Structures are given as C-alpha cells and as structure tokens.
Amino acid sequence: MDKKYVLFVKPGCPFCVDAVMALSEREKEYSVVKVDGDSSELVIEMKEATGWPTFPMVFMRDLSLVEGQDCLVRIGGYTDLMKHLESEDE
C-alpha cells in the first residue's frame, strides 16, 4: 500500500477517537502518535510547524507522490479527514 495515515492524538479527545475509528472501519493503514497536554514542548512545536491548532493532527504518508520518495502531506483535523476519505470513496 502506497498510503499510510499518521495521527497525532491527545488522551480524552473525542475527535481523535472518531478519526481512528473512521480509518479502522475503512481498513486504511495508519499509525497513532500519542501526545500529552497542550503545553508540552512537542505539542507547541507541532502547532507552530504545521500551523494546525487542534487535535487530531492528521497526515498522510504517500509514496506515489514523488517517485518512491516518502512524502508527508497534512490532511488537517477530523473534519478534514472525513472529507478526504469521502473524496477517496468517490
């Protein structure tokens, strides 16, 4: 499979749980990275680097975009993931 999703999630985040369930139900390949709290250094750096302020932070690794090179593409949050999956289903 050329595509794999990477989700950064926080404990207690209902949208994070829903995003994982959506990928699981569609039998998509994914990995989950758990982060703690809004004030952790990793969370602050990720928000600054991606420009994305909420969780989950959803990315897609796609080997087919650049001739075999592993590219990480930001999908967004839960709502963006659902739109992305719906467009793949069409």
Kindly state the mean pLDDT as a whole number?
A: 87
Spatial strand sequence of the major β-sheet: 2-1-3-4
Helix/strand-derived class? alpha+beta
Task: Indicate the radius of gyration in whole angstroms.
Answer: 13 Å
Distance between the termini: 19 Å
State the helix count.
Answer: 3
Q: List SSEs in N-to-C order.
A: EHEHEEH
Uncertain residue ranges:
none
Fourth-level CATH superfamily: Glutaredoxin
Note the main sheet.
4 strands, mixed
Identify the notable features of this structure and list them briefly.
four-stranded mixed beta sheet, 38% helix, alpha+beta
Q: What this model shows, in words?
A:
Helix content is 38%, strand content 33%. By secondary structure, the protein is α+β, with helices and mostly antiparallel strands. The protein has a single domain, classed as Glutaredoxin. It is globular.
Quick take:
By secondary structure, the protein is an alpha+beta fold.
List the helices and strands and how they pair.
Blueprint: E1 3-9, H1 14-25, E2 30-34, H2 41-50, E3 57-66, E4 69-76, H3 78-89
Parallel strand pairs: 1-2
Antiparallel strand pairs: 1-3, 3-4
